[in-house]
């Protein structure tokens, strides 16, 4: 009765459909209850969107109840989900950081999707996503994570500022040199506008993954057991990042705050920002000026890491719960939902089929920037993820910040980070 | 028989203390002697190896040093400010209630809210501080992005947040001091400063001790703002011991090393409170 009541109050829009479903469910079918934690890492009313999708799912599947719990940022979501598991509270699936995969495997917390899917159709579903988005979800020949709120880094730029500086607003910088050049034209002497801002708090390693990739260097191997922090091309990439502030004076020196960067861009304090595509809809709705979105510039090649959250299913779930969780995940990542999700947030449609839906095609036609992230996937690589990923990531983050604030040279800082990573990863080889 | 009743009366408090204080402390110390376990390699007893690891960990030494600076920066300043504010609003003053409330407001706000407000004070270019500096022609500064200023910026915010809270205790203490003392002092020809130094301040010492203990504890306990402002960065320049413990336990999943760090935190706090009770208590007049 309680569930029926609870269902009845969830979402007025789907109420009629829901009531019909409840009437059917309360008689015979056994209920499966799922608890799911999910994070939000960028601004905007993302919780409402997720809750709305969950309500729709329950309307379609009256025998399944889903408690979707918003759990803060990626770190918080992982902490809460694992704490719930350890404390014996139910949690059958969660959206967590795609790069948590090795830690979750090591903690024996998750189950591979290969062990849950049964039919050929379900097996084919595992291959229906963009392969690049699966890189962070697959290891050891198994699929552990299904892409959901996935992003790449894109370059947002202020077209009005481009015009004012005498630059062509339709040709955003496509190389590192062009970025510096444009930055110099865009930076105002009096400090009222900077040319470029690349955030260096929160997720510095992520931005750095893009710069390294553009210099044709990945940061780790596919098994999560080796890092390449002190490779020549990696050091060069950090040299370049550091030179934007220290040498070319097109970016403020010191670290740049992830959380306030969008505001900086919206207030015109920087003409270009690198940020997650997850900000796209928020920028679109709040920019008082003409803005553009472009792929990140290239040095040796174009490049960006993918980012964001994947669905995981926990090992503790019973068979019935696992198949219900699979049903929910399939619902949430189905092309139409992925399309809707992408339009409302700016995150990517996770499968090619999502971009073939009519709504998203119409949307892309009217707002072409919605497809930049997808087009950039061709050049994308996995996000930094290794065993002991928290510590390895922190070593790299610290190195980047030390170089950007000038307390160490890039070579020195990255050398130390590599030594730390070696020490941490040796036991896993 | 009286013993039995005495112990019985103690039981409820003792159960709570043991369950939520002493047992966890004991468990923490025990945990710190084991290796980090996972399903593949179970945790095993390694003696003091975690402590040796800690002694070699440069980040540990840095956060400890940062914490010392943070304590030195926040404690005397917030106590002095609290006392000044209390003296100010203890007098007959037009709009006294308003002034008291204004001083107390930062205390009401949760630390996370405070950090979010100050984040927009400190943000370069669009932040309040830079905008005001811009008006009078000063260059902006990346307060939280510069390792030389980040800890100072956090200290200023913490003092702002804490002083109002301590003011309340001083204000309460000031109300209990009989006005005859000031009248008598005046008859004897004592100046205001002499009265404050020789009479008022010594009488306030019990309050000062209480406030001091709280301030010291807070300087090690208060890390909420780091989650919002800096996450300990840049390059650990604003990282504090408790935040590092949190990172180790929940970001690195290394609970045994986190336990080791926690033991250090407990020792630091225990030693500091012991010193205060033993040394300062002798110099305090309780009435």
UniProtKB/TrEMBL annotation, chain A:
Q: Which residues form a coiled coil?
A: none
Top-level division of the source organism's lineage: Bacteria
GO biological process per UniProt: maltodextrin transmembrane transport; maltose transport
Signal peptide limits? 1-30
GO cellular-component terms in the record?
ATP-binding cassette (ABC) transporter complex, substrate-binding subunit-containing
Keyword list, A-Z: Signal, Transport
One of the entry's Gene Ontology molecular-function terms is:
maltose binding
SUPFAM superfamilies, sorted: Periplasmic binding protein-like II
Give the UniProt family note: Belongs to the bacterial solute-binding protein 1 family.
The protein depicted here goes by the name sn-glycerol 3-phosphate transport system substrate-binding protein
From TrEMBL, chain B:
Tagged with keyword Cell membrane? yes
User: Which Gene Ontology biological process is one annotated for this entry?
Assistant: transmembrane transport
Give the family per the record: Belongs to the binding-protein-dependent transport system permease family.
Q: Describe the location of the ABC transmembrane type-1 domain by residue ranges.
A: 64-276
Compartment(s): Cell membrane
Its main localization is membrane
Q: Which Gene Ontology terms of cellular component type are present? A: plasma membrane
- Assigned keywords, A-Z: Cell membrane, Membrane, Transmembrane, Transmembrane helix, Transport
The protein in question is named sn-glycerol 3-phosphate transport system permease protein
Q: Which PANTHER family match?
A: BLL4140 PROTEIN (PTHR43227)
Record field: transmembrane: 7-25, 68-89, 101-121, 150-174, 195-217, 257-280
Give the membrane topology.
Answer: Multi-pass membrane protein
Instruction: Name the source organism.
Output: Rhodospira trueperi
Which Gene3D superfamilies does this one have? Answer: MetI-like
């Amino acid at each position: 009765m309680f569930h029926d009541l609870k269902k009845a109050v969830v979402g007025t829009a789907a109420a009629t459909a829901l009531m019909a479903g409840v009437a059917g469910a309360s008689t015979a079918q056994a209920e499966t209850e799922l608890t799911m934690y999910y994070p939000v890492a960028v601004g905007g009313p993302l919780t409402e969107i997720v809750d709305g999708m969950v309500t729709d799912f329950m309307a379609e599947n009256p025998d399944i109840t889903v408690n979707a719990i918003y759990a803060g940022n990626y770190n918080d979501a992982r902490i809460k989900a694992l704490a719930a598991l350890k404390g014996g509270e139910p949690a059958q699936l969660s959206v967590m950081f795609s790069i948590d995969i090795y830690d979750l495997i090591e903690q024996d917390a998750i189950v591979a999707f290969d062990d849950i899917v049964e039919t050929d159709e379900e097996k084919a579903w595992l291959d229906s996503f963009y392969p690049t988005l699966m890189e962070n979800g697959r290891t050891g020949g198994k699929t552990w994570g299904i892409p959901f709120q996935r992003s790449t880094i894109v370059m947002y730029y202020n077209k009005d500022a481009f015009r004012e500086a005498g630059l062509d607003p339709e040709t955003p910088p496509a190389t590192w040199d062009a970025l510096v050049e444009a930055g110099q034209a865009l930076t105002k002497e009096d400090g009222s506008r900077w040319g470029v801002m690349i955030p260096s708090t929160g997720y510095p390693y992520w931005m750095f993954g893009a710069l390294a990739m553009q210099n044709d260097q990945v940061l780790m191997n596919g098994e999560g057991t080796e890092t390449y922090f002190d490779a020549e091309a990696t050091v060069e990439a950090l040299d370049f990042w550091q030179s934007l502030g220290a040498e070319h004076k097109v970016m403020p020196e010191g670290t740049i705050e992830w959380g306030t960067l969008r505001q900086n861009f919206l207030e015109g304090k920087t003409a270009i920002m690198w940020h997650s595509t997850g900000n796209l809809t928020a920028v679109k709705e709040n920019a008082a000026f003409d803005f553009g979105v472009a792929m990140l510039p290239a040095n040796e090649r174009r490049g960006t890491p993918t980012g964001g959250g994947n669905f995981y299913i926990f090992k503790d779930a019973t068979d019935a719960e696992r198949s219900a969780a699979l049903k929910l995940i399939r619902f949430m990542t189905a092309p139409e939902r992925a399309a809707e999700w992408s339009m409302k947030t700016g995150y990517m449609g996770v499968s090619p089929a999502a971009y073939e839906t009519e709504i998203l095609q119409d949307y892309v036609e009217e707002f072409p920037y919605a497809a930049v992230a997808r087009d950039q996937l061709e050049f994308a690589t996995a996000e930094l993820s290794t065993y002991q990923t928290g510590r390895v990531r922190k070593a790299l983050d610290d190195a980047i910040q030390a170089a950007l604030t000038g307390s160490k040279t890039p070579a020195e800082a990255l050398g130390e980070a590599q030594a730390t990573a070696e020490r941490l990863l040796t036991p896993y080889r | 028989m009286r013993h039995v009743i005495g112990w019985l009366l103690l039981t409820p408090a003792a159960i709570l203390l043991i369950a939520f204080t002493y047992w966890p402390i004991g468990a923490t110390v025990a945990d710190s002697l084991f290796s980090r376990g996972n399903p593949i390699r179970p945790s095993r007893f390694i003696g003091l190896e975690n402590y040796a690891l800690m002694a070699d960990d440069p980040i540990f030494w840095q956060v400890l040093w940062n914490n010392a600076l943070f304590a030195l920066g926040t404690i005397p300043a917030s106590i002095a400010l609290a006392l000044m504010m209390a003296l100010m609003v203890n007098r007959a003053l037009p709009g006294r209630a308003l002034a008291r409330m204004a001083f107390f407001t930062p205390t009401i706000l949760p630390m996370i809210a405070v950090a979010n407000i100050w984040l927009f004070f400190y943000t370069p270019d669009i932040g309040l501080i830079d905008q005001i500096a811009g008006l009078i022609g000063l260059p902006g500064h990346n307060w939280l992005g510069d390792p030389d200023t980040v800890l100072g910026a956090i200290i200023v915010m913490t003092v702002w947040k804490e002083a109002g809270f301590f003011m309340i205790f001083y204000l309460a203490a000031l109300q209990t001091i009989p006005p005859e003392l000031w009248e008598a002092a005046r008859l004897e020809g004592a100046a205001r400063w002499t009265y404050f130094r020789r009479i008022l301040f010594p009488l306030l010492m019990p309050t000062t001790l209480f406030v001091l203990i709280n301030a010291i504890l807070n300087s090690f306990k208060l890390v909420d703002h780091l989650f919002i402002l800096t996450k300990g960065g840049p390059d650990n320049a604003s990282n504090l011991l408790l935040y590092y413990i949190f990172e180790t336990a929940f970001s690195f999943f290394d609970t045994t090393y986190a336990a080791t760090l926690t033991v250090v935190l407990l020792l630091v706090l225990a030693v500091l409170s012991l010193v205060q009770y033993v040394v300062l208590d002798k110099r305090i007049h309780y009435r």
